[in-house]
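Changelog-adjacent note: as of this version, every example in the card shows the full chain rather than a window. The one below runs 203 residues end to end.
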Amino acid sequence: MTAISTQSKQTLTFEQFLAQYPDDGRYELVDGEIVKILATRQHDDIADFLNKRFDREVDRLSLNYKVSGRIMIATLTKNGKEQGRFPDVSVVSLDVWRANRSAYSALREPLQLAVEVVSTNWEDDYIDKLDEYQRLGIREYWIVDYLAIGSRDYLGNPKLPTVFVYQLDENGDYQVTAYRGNDRIGSATFPELELTIEDILRV
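Full-length structure tokens:
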């Protein structure tokens, strides 16, 4: 995804961002500014594929989750600045989702699982969102770097397409496992999920 700022010299709160949310696409609140998110078709195809696979697991196992690509969440930076993030795929407890069904699709409660499909602004997913999602208490966070465009510090050398799965430990810190090739991706949310990065690359 590519982020394009649509505001200047105006710092918005999360509530102001929701009130001014444009109706012509997908946006995030970043450092007080409304930022439009543009994604390639391949990026969207992968997000849709994961959404469907997760939704299938929810139905198959009668899990108490809602899966969606349309959920906004409020996060905080380490400096206490409020952000509005829009994960590519979100999995949230039905109890949380249905607690206020007349509200808009914006949550302050932590998701069960968030997925970000990496694009050119890869640092956002690997650094900023990682910190914000851990701070919020999102239990599981996937970074799907299908193009292997993150730095070698993360991907190694040679750089290979990778799915990083971050799980919160008992101290509230993320522990990460990297999956490549035909590794079966391990998920605490969907422990019976049969999925590899090769499956994702075939989308």
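Structural remarks: The first helix runs from residue 14 to 19.
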